[in-house]
Amino acid sequence: IIQGEKFQFQTEVSRLMNIVINSLYKTPEIFLRELISNGSDALDKIRFQSLTDSAALESNPNLNVTIAVHKDKRVITITDTGIGMTKEDLQKNLGTIAKSGTSEFLDTLSGDKADMDLIGKFGVGFYSVFLVADKVRVTSKNNNDDQYIWESTAVDDFTIAKDPAGNTLGRGTQIAIHLKEGQDQYLEDAKLQQLVQKYSEFINFPIYIRRTKTKTVEAETPKDVDTDDSEEAKVEDAKEETPAAPVTVTYQEDDLMNSNKPIWIRDPKSVSETEYQEFYSVLTREPDAKSMAYSHFKAEGDVEFKAIMYIPNKAPKDLFQRVDNAHSNVKLYVKRVFITDDSAEFLPRWLGFLKVVVDAEDAPLNVSRETVQSNKSIKAIHKHLVKKMFDLLKTLSADEEKYAGFIKEYGTSLKLGALEDKAHIKKIGRLLRYHSSNSDKYTSLESYVSRMKKGQKDIFYFTGANVDEIKQSPFVESLLARGYEVLYMDDPIDEIVLQHIGNFEGKAFQNVAKSSLKLGDEDTDAESEKALEEKFLPLLDWMHATLLNDIEKVRVSKRLTTSPAALVANDFGWTANMERLMEGQAK
Ligand code: ADP
Ligand code: MG
User: Which residues on adjacent β-strands are paired with residue 215?
Assistant: First the structure.
């Protein structure tokens, strides 16, 4: 422990430290995220200052963060070349909480797990270092002061002293973390690398891990300056130049951890298609992954964030098997720092196929009073994302061929949306596409309606296992013969989806297999109908008697053209398709 001035932590700091330690002991790793973020903030500050004060960078022109491990001492150091802290800064910034309302905020924390989770997911700050450290030494050099050391074991007080070593840092801050018993995992390069890449992949400044490496070199004989030109000397030289045995040397090298660029912060106009696709594979961690469409946008107002939303080329195989759809669906960053990808709150379940990166300008749940209403921000982000997704699909649907590709991969997701998302059911209805008797291409409900015959009131559809089977139905055949268009519903959930949608632009959906089907163009000559029924009565009676166990009644119909008979469901019964679906569920 250094000798120096002793200071007490402000009461709020002690309370916050306790909360942080008690709530986050399961994810101590976030200390690294917090310290790198602070380094990055400090680098932002000095860069900003240098815009108006060109001398500011003279103390050290490099802007970066370097992490190094000293295994023997069980110490990690995190060094930034940012703005640094004066003695006064050290005392104030690392001993008090400047944010207004912090005390009230701390009062509102009930100690519930939910509260704690919120604190944990968003910025918790410098004090999280005590999750892994039993002693921390902060050495800092600001342009306006000498180099000072702040040191604490987190128990009540901290010490500040002028660094006896002098101004060795040039400019910036070095945090030396003496690890607690049991936290040795953070001494491993591989572990640190994994964490830096998880949380700090998109930090604007280079982050290095200093590694000790070995290499084998030819041992070099020191070349002495040859002044002796005599024959004997030359013989001596020749002897000396016989190669010595190779030797292994140890050296240190800084490996760059964050070469991926956060393209979402750029102006969309300046980002090329290739860059979007490259970033998509970075985001998904799948080198060959491609996206069929994306949207890059900025949201302002109730919550400020930038986002890129991608629709993958292919739907994941397990899309509907996932218990929790949200997993790695939306990656939330706050100012380029990764926060979480396991929140189900950002998108409805049916949009589980999207891949989204969201970067909020302000930690919506930072440790301050406003954060008590934390979920407001998440709800606002949710709303924006859904709206942008509909915009994206609207644009995509203008290109019939591309959109057919979307329907092939995600048609079922849309239908799931129709079942689960009442608020957007009208919009989803417009995005659905069906096979139809009109052409081999998909049709929207909108264009079906535009082709409806004069006097036609309903949208006609028929269900079956596949389009070929549907086409062979006598019901369909008779409608086609009369010049009606029929939608071919070959997905088992289609019928339930239609029940949810109810109607489209006031047009009801009519299954052509139902007995009550009204085409709207029948001649309603009651006389001739009666005559027909009388004429065929013996046949009807015979059929009814023969099929007694399987059918309810037999009727003369005018709906058929070439087929002699058809089996229909009554209005309250299930259609053959529904029966198939129900049987499937019962299994
Ligand atoms: P926050 O980053 O949200 O302000 P922290 O607890 O992480 O809260 O840090 C507290 C303060 O300490 C920062 O606001 C900053 O003024 C100062 N600070 C922390 N780390 C550094 C650093 N590496 N360089 C300069 N200042 C720092
Ligand atoms: Mg911070």
Answer: 249
- Name the closest-CA residue to atom 17, ligand 1: 93
Q: How many CA atoms lie within 13 A of 220 on its CB side?
A: 5
Structure tokens at 282: 């970075």
Ligand 1 pocket: which of 15, 36, 38, 102 to mutate (most atoms <8 Å of CB)? 38
For residue range 88-134, what is the model confidence (pLDDT) as tens digits?
999 999 998 866 666 776 776 666 665 666 666 666 789 999 999 99
Here the tokens at position 65 are: 């963060």
Cα 202 from Cα 500, distance rounded (Å): 43
Coil, helix or strand at residue 353 = coil
Evaluate whether 417 touches 348 at the Cβ level (below 8 Å): yes
For the beta carbon of residue 289, count every other beta carbon within 10 angstroms: 17
For residue 82, CA distances in Å to 132, 229, 254, 366 come to 24, 56, 18, 23
CB 364 within 8 A of CB 378: yes
DSSP one-letter string for 510-532: EETTBTT---S-----HHHHHHH
- Sequence-separated (6 or more) residues with CB below 8 Å from residue 135: 1, 151, 152, 153, 178
Per DSSP bridges, beta strands 75-80 and 172-179 are antiparallel
ipTM score for this prediction: 0.99
DSSP conformation class of 142: -
Round the CA-based radius of gyration of the chain to a whole number and report it: 36
Q: Can you give the pTM of this predicted structure?
A: 0.79
The b-or-e profile of 376-410 (16+ CB within 10 A means b, else e) is ebbebbbebbbebbeebbeebbeeeeebebbbebb
Residue that has been written with the tokens 């079942």 in this structure? 419
Going by C-alpha positions, the residue among 290, 445, 425, 292 that lies closest to residue 350 is 425
Atom 20 of ligand 1, residue of closest alpha carbon: 38
Nearest alpha carbon, ligand 1 atom 14: 93
As given in the structure block, the two tokens for residue 397 are 């649907």
38 marked ligand binding residue: yes
Pocket of ligand 1 contains residue 126 by CB under 6 Å: yes
